[in-house]
Amino acid sequence: MLKLTKAVFLFFAFLLPGYGQLQAQQGHEEEKTHVTESHSEEIEAHASDTHAEEGFNAGEFVIDHVSDSYDWHITSFGDKHISIPLPIIVYSKQPELHDGQAFHVFMSSKFHHGHSAYKGFRISESEEFKGKVVELDAAGLEIGTPIDISITKTIAGILASVVILLWLVFATAKLAKKNTGRAPTGVQNALEPIIFFIRDEVAKPAIGEHKYEKFMPFLLTLFFFILINNFMGLIPIPPFGANVTGNIGVTMVLALFTFAITTINGNKHYWKEIYNPDVPWWLKFPIPLMPIVELSGVITKPFVLMVRLFANMMAGHLIVMVFVSLIFVFGSLFGPAVGLGASPISILFSVFILLLDVLVSFIQAYVFTLLSALYFGMATADHH
Amino acid sequence: MGLVMPNPGTIFWMLIIFGIVFFVLKKFAWKPILTALKEREDSIATALNSAEEAKKEVAGLKADNEKVIAEARREKEAILKEAKELKDKIVAEAKEKAGEEAQKTIAQARQQIEAEKTAAINDIKKQVAELSVSIAEKVIRKELSNKGEQEKMVDGLIDDIKLN
Fold first, then answer.
1. How many CB pairs under 8 A join A and B?
2. A166 closest CB neighbour out of B9, B18, B21
3. What is the pLDDT of residues A214-269, one digit of tens each?
4. Is the bond leading into A286 cis (omega within 30 degrees of zero)?
5. How far is B57 from chain A (nearest CA, A)?
6. Between A67, A149, A254, which is nearest B12 by CB?
7. B1 and A67: CB-CB below 8 Å?
8. What angle (nearest 5°) sits at the alpha carbon of residue B35, between those of residues B30 and B36?
9. Is A71 helix (H, G, I), strand (E, B) or coil?
10. How far, in Å, are A142, A183, A246, B139, B142 from residue B134 at the CA level?
């Protein structure tokens, strides 16, 4: 019986991320249609009327919650938005448009939630730069984006979880020094099993007994970074709840680190397998078919790492938001009573998905670390 | 902001943050943690090893003890056996000796008895001879008190001689 539930559970676990992506696509489409609609409506100058009719836009609601943004939105009452302002850091190549200054640092609250411009910058509402900070020319038209290194919600989320990560690991390090040769205490008890797991179940089998030690710091940092960010993303209260590991820029950097370490540590055998693999000669000459395949593999490996983590975490967030937004969809379609009636089911599903996401958080952190370790193992493998 | 397009700003900060976190943790946290773990593992391994050795030693001691005990037992048995044999031998010897002695005594006694018997027989013979002689004398004296009888006797004797 237990086995059966487990099987069903796993089935859903594999099914749901796919479903989430589907939802994301639909959300995208909805968003797009919404944008075009509102655009045309604005031209017709019936914007406010139709908006009231439309009521709740689930696609926009969901996408807004999983997207990066310049301020940390907490809640809104009607037109009043409550959010934590975050610093905007931009470098303009055209300082003459911004009081003669190229480098600008100011809080996002200056934009009033995207409603107003500040020093020749504003949050774009055009389709091309939607949601990004754009420069405005003298006439108030968008002319492009500046170099933008703002502390966005994602970055703030990363900083928050990095604080937790550093605290956890340094506390463990301190205890480890104190308890050398003795039984672990406190937070050391929580982290050590995971460290042992990464070492004995991931690094040693994947890289090998003799070379694994060199890669342990990276694998541990990677695992804990992803795990903590995954968990923080599940807690819907600032400074948590930012969709960090569901941001493709973040996963891209993580994958880049894996790629860089793999490439730097690649030994002669590794490169030989790429440029001159052990295959019949006609697969290498005159058209270097296998080298091309192998070389593309070098790129696809980190790419897949990037997409897997991003898609899984993004999907988890999306589904939870979709289930929550169902309440308001029902509410706006059939009246508040129906929305209220649908809420228990929505909440039940949301809770289920959240619990699933806890599992996914572990699995994704593990998979990313394991695959990174495997790539390191391949790069440092001895010739047999 | 697009969902599937990486944002340069995010990448920039993430590179810096993750790079610093990685470097700092590697330098100041993971190294001591991993060393401590290794040291503890080693110490546990050594402790287990020495425990194993101690166990082996104890087992060896036990085996030695058993060997000693077994040897002692064997020795005891050997001694007992020897003692028994000795005892048996002594008893047997004693028995033999006693038998011999008895035999000797008996033989001596027999000899003495024989000698005494012979002496007694000789004595008896002597006495019988004396008695016979006296009886014969008395008989002859009585019988030869009358003449007829004497003659008769003489005749008888003569006859006997003839017959012989």
1. 125
2. B21
3. 999 999 999 999 999 999 988 888 778 888 898 899 999 999 999 999 999 998 88
4. yes
5. 26
6. A149
7. yes
8. 100
9. strand
10. 195, 135, 166, 8, 12
Closest CA–CA distance from residue B56 to any residue of chain A (Å)? 25
DSSP H or E segment with residue A74: strand A71-77
* Cross-chain residue pair B1–A182, CB shorter than 8 Å: no
User: ipTM of the assembly?
Assistant: 0.80
Residue A181 dihedral angles phi and psi, to the nearest 5°: 75, 5
* Contact yes or no for B14 and A196 at CB 8 A: no
Distance CA B84, CA B87 (A): 5
What local confidence, expressed as pLDDT, does residue A22 receive?
Answer: 39
DSSP A295-315: HHHHHHHHHHHHHHHHHHHHH
3-state SS, residue A112: coil
Q: Which amino acid belongs to residue B85? A: E
Mean pLDDT calculated for residue range A30-40: 40
What's the whole-number mean pLDDT along residues A132-138? 81
pLDDT, residue B2, reads 65
Cβ A346 vs Cβ A326: under 8 Å = yes
Most B CBs within 10 A among A125, A152, A155, A312, hence the mutation to make, goes to: A155
- Rounded to the nearest integer, the mean pLDDT of chain B is 87
| Chain B residues 4-63 with CB within 8 Å of chain A | 4-15, 17-18, 21-22, 24-26, 28-34, 36-37, 39-40, 43
Q: How far is CA A354 from CA A72, A84, A320, A377, B108, in A?
A: 21, 25, 7, 34, 125
- Reading chain B (164 residues) residue by residue, the pLDDT tens digits are 467 788 888 899 999 999 999 999 999 999 888 888 888 888 889 999 999 999 999 999 999 999 999 999 999 999 999 999 999 999 998 888 888 888 888 888 888 888 888 888 888 888 888 888 888 888 777 767 777 777 887 888 888 877 65
CB pair distance less than 8 Å for B14 and A253: yes
CA–CA separation, A138 and A96 (whole Å): 10
Residues A11-27: tens digit of each pLDDT: 444 444 433 333 334 44
Beta-carbon separation of A248 and B37 below 8 A:
no
Nearest CB among B3, B8, B36 relative to A314 is that of: B3
Using the 8-state DSSP alphabet, how is residue A281 labeled? Answer: G
